Amino acid sequence: MLLGVNVDHVATIREARGETEPDPLIAAKMAIDGGADGITVHLREDRRHINDRDLRRVRSNLKKVEINLEMAAINEMVNIALKIRPDLVTLVPEKRAELTTEGGLELEKCSKKIKKAIDSIQAKGIPVSLFINPAIKDIHMSKQLGASMVEIHTGLYANAAGRKQISELERVRKAVKRGNEIGLLVNAGHGLKFSNVKNIAAIKGIRGLYIGHSIIANSIYLGLESAVKEMKRLMKQAQNLGFQER
Ligand code: PXP
User: Fold this and answer.
1) Which CATH number fits domain 2-240: 3.90.1150.10, 3.30.420.130, 3.20.20.70, 3.40.120.10?
2) Which residues form the catalytic set?
3) Pairwise CA distance, residues 86 & 69, whole Å
4) pTM confidence score
5) Relative to the CA of 213, which ligand 1 atom is closest?
Protein backbone atom coordinates (compact mmCIF):
# COMPACT_ATOMS: atom_id res chain seq x y z
CA MET A 1 0.00 0.00 0.00
CA LEU A 2 1.44 3.33 -1.10
CA LEU A 3 1.67 6.38 1.11
CA GLY A 4 1.25 9.75 -0.58
CA VAL A 5 2.22 12.65 1.67
CA ASN A 6 0.46 15.96 1.20
CA VAL A 7 2.83 18.89 1.83
CA ASP A 8 0.27 21.72 1.50
CA HIS A 9 0.57 22.67 5.14
CA VAL A 10 4.28 23.31 4.86
CA ALA A 11 3.25 26.08 2.47
CA THR A 12 0.48 27.13 4.89
CA ILE A 13 3.15 27.94 7.50
CA ARG A 14 5.22 29.81 4.93
CA GLU A 15 2.21 31.86 3.83
CA ALA A 16 1.28 32.68 7.43
CA ARG A 17 4.28 35.04 7.47
CA GLY A 18 4.64 35.74 3.76
CA GLU A 19 8.09 34.15 4.07
CA THR A 20 10.21 31.95 1.84
CA GLU A 21 10.48 29.15 4.41
CA PRO A 22 9.54 26.42 5.12
CA ASP A 23 9.87 25.13 1.56
CA PRO A 24 7.42 22.40 0.46
CA LEU A 25 10.04 20.94 -1.90
CA ILE A 26 12.57 20.43 0.90
CA ALA A 27 9.77 18.90 3.00
CA ALA A 28 8.79 16.63 0.11
CA LYS A 29 12.37 15.37 -0.17
CA MET A 30 12.42 14.63 3.56
CA ALA A 31 9.10 12.81 3.31
CA ILE A 32 10.56 10.68 0.51
CA ASP A 33 13.60 9.94 2.69
CA GLY A 34 11.15 8.76 5.35
CA GLY A 35 9.52 6.34 2.88
CA ALA A 36 6.78 8.34 1.14
CA ASP A 37 5.84 6.77 -2.19
CA GLY A 38 4.28 9.92 -3.50
CA ILE A 39 3.86 13.63 -2.88
CA THR A 40 0.54 15.43 -3.12
CA VAL A 41 -0.01 19.13 -3.61
CA HIS A 42 -3.37 20.85 -3.83
CA LEU A 43 -3.27 23.90 -6.06
CA ARG A 44 -6.28 25.86 -4.89
CA GLU A 45 -7.95 28.56 -6.95
CA ASP A 46 -7.02 31.14 -4.29
CA ARG A 47 -3.42 29.79 -3.96
CA ARG A 48 -3.76 29.96 -0.18
CA HIS A 49 -0.87 27.53 0.37
CA ILE A 50 0.73 25.79 -2.63
CA ASN A 51 1.40 28.16 -5.53
CA ASP A 52 2.22 27.59 -9.18
CA ARG A 53 5.97 27.83 -8.58
CA ASP A 54 5.80 25.17 -5.83
CA LEU A 55 4.01 22.86 -8.21
CA ARG A 56 6.57 23.43 -10.99
CA ARG A 57 9.48 22.84 -8.60
CA VAL A 58 7.96 19.71 -7.05
CA ARG A 59 7.30 18.27 -10.51
CA SER A 60 10.68 19.07 -12.01
CA ASN A 61 12.75 17.96 -9.00
CA LEU A 62 10.94 14.77 -8.02
CA LYS A 63 10.94 12.21 -10.78
CA LYS A 64 10.97 8.93 -8.91
CA VAL A 65 7.80 9.17 -6.84
CA GLU A 66 4.18 9.77 -7.81
CA ILE A 67 3.31 13.45 -7.98
CA ASN A 68 -0.40 13.80 -7.31
CA LEU A 69 -2.00 17.13 -8.18
CA GLU A 70 -5.24 17.78 -6.33
CA MET A 71 -7.38 20.34 -8.07
CA ALA A 72 -10.88 21.50 -8.91
CA ALA A 73 -12.38 20.38 -12.23
CA ILE A 74 -12.11 23.80 -13.88
CA ASN A 75 -10.48 24.88 -17.15
CA GLU A 76 -7.70 26.87 -15.49
CA MET A 77 -6.54 23.83 -13.50
CA VAL A 78 -6.94 21.40 -16.39
CA ASN A 79 -4.63 23.62 -18.48
CA ILE A 80 -2.07 23.74 -15.65
CA ALA A 81 -2.21 19.95 -15.24
CA LEU A 82 -1.64 19.40 -18.95
CA LYS A 83 1.37 21.71 -18.87
CA ILE A 84 2.97 20.43 -15.65
CA ARG A 85 2.14 16.76 -16.22
CA PRO A 86 1.80 15.29 -12.72
CA ASP A 87 1.70 11.48 -12.50
CA LEU A 88 -1.85 11.62 -11.19
CA VAL A 89 -4.60 14.23 -10.97
CA THR A 90 -7.14 13.95 -8.17
CA LEU A 91 -10.27 15.99 -8.76
CA VAL A 92 -11.72 17.45 -5.57
CA PRO A 93 -14.63 19.76 -4.80
CA GLU A 94 -13.39 23.16 -3.72
CA LYS A 95 -15.16 25.83 -1.74
CA ARG A 96 -13.40 29.07 -1.10
CA ALA A 97 -14.30 29.42 2.58
CA GLU A 98 -13.60 25.83 3.64
CA LEU A 99 -10.72 24.98 5.98
CA THR A 100 -10.05 21.74 4.11
CA THR A 101 -11.83 19.63 1.49
CA GLU A 102 -15.17 19.00 3.17
CA GLY A 103 -16.53 16.00 1.34
CA GLY A 104 -16.44 13.99 -1.84
CA LEU A 105 -17.36 15.31 -5.28
CA GLU A 106 -21.04 15.81 -6.07
CA LEU A 107 -20.82 13.55 -9.08
CA GLU A 108 -24.40 13.82 -10.26
CA LYS A 109 -24.63 17.57 -9.94
CA CYS A 110 -21.25 18.22 -11.58
CA SER A 111 -21.07 15.25 -13.95
CA LYS A 112 -20.57 17.35 -17.12
CA LYS A 113 -17.60 19.35 -15.92
CA ILE A 114 -16.04 16.33 -14.20
CA LYS A 115 -16.34 14.21 -17.34
CA LYS A 116 -14.87 17.01 -19.45
CA ALA A 117 -11.87 17.32 -17.10
CA ILE A 118 -11.35 13.52 -16.97
CA ASP A 119 -11.47 13.23 -20.76
CA SER A 120 -9.06 16.12 -21.41
CA ILE A 121 -6.51 14.94 -18.84
CA GLN A 122 -6.65 11.21 -19.51
CA ALA A 123 -6.43 11.82 -23.27
CA LYS A 124 -2.92 13.11 -22.55
CA GLY A 125 -1.96 9.96 -20.65
CA ILE A 126 -2.40 11.28 -17.09
CA PRO A 127 -4.68 9.11 -14.93
CA VAL A 128 -7.48 10.86 -13.05
CA SER A 129 -8.75 9.92 -9.61
CA LEU A 130 -12.06 11.20 -8.19
CA PHE A 131 -12.31 12.07 -4.50
CA ILE A 132 -15.65 10.55 -3.55
CA ASN A 133 -17.75 9.74 -0.52
CA PRO A 134 -17.85 6.05 0.46
CA ALA A 135 -21.11 5.39 -1.39
CA ILE A 136 -21.69 2.54 -3.83
CA LYS A 137 -23.52 4.82 -6.25
CA ASP A 138 -20.50 7.14 -6.39
CA ILE A 139 -18.24 4.18 -7.13
CA HIS A 140 -20.45 3.21 -10.07
CA MET A 141 -20.74 6.76 -11.29
CA SER A 142 -16.95 7.22 -11.17
CA LYS A 143 -16.59 4.21 -13.44
CA GLN A 144 -19.28 5.55 -15.79
CA LEU A 145 -17.51 8.89 -15.98
CA GLY A 146 -14.37 7.07 -17.09
CA ALA A 147 -12.01 7.77 -14.17
CA SER A 148 -9.14 5.31 -13.71
CA MET A 149 -9.13 5.63 -9.95
CA VAL A 150 -11.08 6.89 -6.98
CA GLU A 151 -9.99 8.16 -3.60
CA ILE A 152 -12.51 7.28 -0.93
CA HIS A 153 -13.13 10.04 1.59
CA THR A 154 -12.25 8.67 5.03
CA GLY A 155 -13.09 11.90 6.88
CA LEU A 156 -16.46 10.68 8.13
CA TYR A 157 -14.79 7.56 9.56
CA ALA A 158 -11.98 9.66 11.06
CA ASN A 159 -14.31 12.13 12.73
CA ALA A 160 -16.74 9.57 14.13
CA ALA A 161 -16.49 7.62 17.38
CA GLY A 162 -17.83 4.36 18.81
CA ARG A 163 -20.53 2.55 16.84
CA LYS A 164 -20.78 5.35 14.31
CA GLN A 165 -17.11 4.92 13.50
CA ILE A 166 -17.55 1.20 12.98
CA SER A 167 -20.42 1.81 10.57
CA GLU A 168 -18.43 4.45 8.68
CA LEU A 169 -15.52 1.98 8.46
CA GLU A 170 -17.91 -0.58 7.01
CA ARG A 171 -19.03 1.93 4.35
CA VAL A 172 -15.40 2.48 3.35
CA ARG A 173 -14.79 -1.27 3.23
CA LYS A 174 -17.84 -1.89 1.02
CA ALA A 175 -16.92 0.95 -1.32
CA VAL A 176 -13.37 -0.41 -1.71
CA LYS A 177 -14.70 -3.89 -2.46
CA ARG A 178 -17.17 -2.69 -5.08
CA GLY A 179 -14.55 -0.42 -6.67
CA ASN A 180 -12.18 -3.37 -7.03
CA GLU A 181 -14.96 -5.56 -8.43
CA ILE A 182 -15.75 -3.12 -11.24
CA GLY A 183 -12.11 -2.53 -12.12
CA LEU A 184 -11.29 0.77 -10.46
CA LEU A 185 -8.05 1.40 -8.63
CA VAL A 186 -9.10 2.51 -5.15
CA ASN A 187 -7.25 4.89 -2.85
CA ALA A 188 -8.37 6.42 0.44
CA GLY A 189 -7.61 9.50 2.46
CA HIS A 190 -8.59 12.45 4.63
CA GLY A 191 -8.41 12.79 8.39
CA LEU A 192 -6.09 9.79 8.82
CA LYS A 193 -3.61 9.85 11.68
CA PHE A 194 -1.46 7.48 13.75
CA SER A 195 -4.42 6.66 16.00
CA ASN A 196 -6.93 5.76 13.27
CA VAL A 197 -4.95 4.66 10.22
CA LYS A 198 -4.74 0.95 11.04
CA ASN A 199 -8.41 0.13 10.45
CA ILE A 200 -8.16 1.64 6.99
CA ALA A 201 -4.73 0.20 6.17
CA ALA A 202 -6.03 -3.28 7.02
CA ILE A 203 -8.67 -3.11 4.26
CA LYS A 204 -7.67 -5.31 1.35
CA GLY A 205 -7.70 -3.77 -2.10
CA ILE A 206 -6.61 -0.23 -1.27
CA ARG A 207 -3.88 0.98 -3.60
CA GLY A 208 -2.68 3.91 -1.51
CA LEU A 209 -3.42 6.27 1.37
CA TYR A 210 -3.12 10.03 0.99
CA ILE A 211 -2.28 11.77 4.25
CA GLY A 212 -1.35 15.36 5.02
CA HIS A 213 -2.26 17.26 8.13
CA SER A 214 -1.40 14.69 10.76
CA ILE A 215 2.01 13.89 9.27
CA ILE A 216 2.95 17.55 8.99
CA ALA A 217 1.61 18.20 12.52
CA ASN A 218 3.63 15.32 13.97
CA SER A 219 6.74 16.45 12.14
CA ILE A 220 6.87 19.31 14.65
CA TYR A 221 7.44 16.77 17.43
CA LEU A 222 9.26 14.01 15.56
CA GLY A 223 10.78 15.53 12.45
CA LEU A 224 9.19 14.90 9.07
CA GLU A 225 11.21 11.85 8.13
CA SER A 226 10.33 10.09 11.39
CA ALA A 227 6.66 11.08 11.16
CA VAL A 228 6.44 9.50 7.69
CA LYS A 229 8.35 6.42 8.88
CA GLU A 230 5.96 5.96 11.78
CA MET A 231 2.91 6.24 9.51
CA LYS A 232 4.35 3.64 7.14
CA ARG A 233 5.22 1.35 10.03
CA LEU A 234 1.62 1.47 11.29
CA MET A 235 0.27 0.86 7.78
CA LYS A 236 2.53 -2.16 7.28
CA GLN A 237 1.70 -3.58 10.68
CA ALA A 238 -2.03 -3.30 9.98
CA GLN A 239 -1.65 -4.95 6.58
CA ASN A 240 0.40 -7.82 7.98
CA LEU A 241 -1.81 -8.48 10.96
CA GLY A 242 -5.17 -7.74 9.36
CA PHE A 243 -5.67 -5.29 12.22
CA GLN A 244 -9.24 -4.67 13.27
CA GLU A 245 -10.26 -2.48 16.17
CA ARG A 246 -13.65 -3.25 17.62
N1 PXP B 1 -7.14 13.52 0.07
C2 PXP B 1 -7.74 14.63 -0.40
C3 PXP B 1 -8.51 14.53 -1.67
C4 PXP B 1 -7.63 15.86 0.27
O5 PXP B 1 -8.24 16.94 -0.21
C6 PXP B 1 -6.85 15.92 1.44
C7 PXP B 1 -6.68 17.22 2.15
O8 PXP B 1 -5.91 18.08 1.40
C9 PXP B 1 -6.24 14.74 1.89
C10 PXP B 1 -6.41 13.54 1.20
C11 PXP B 1 -5.40 14.70 3.11
O12 PXP B 1 -6.21 14.94 4.20
P13 PXP B 1 -5.55 15.20 5.64
O14 PXP B 1 -4.80 16.49 5.51
O15 PXP B 1 -6.72 15.28 6.54
O16 PXP B 1 -4.64 14.03 5.90
Assistant:
1) 3.20.20.70
2) 42, 70, 190
3) 6
4) 0.96
5) 14
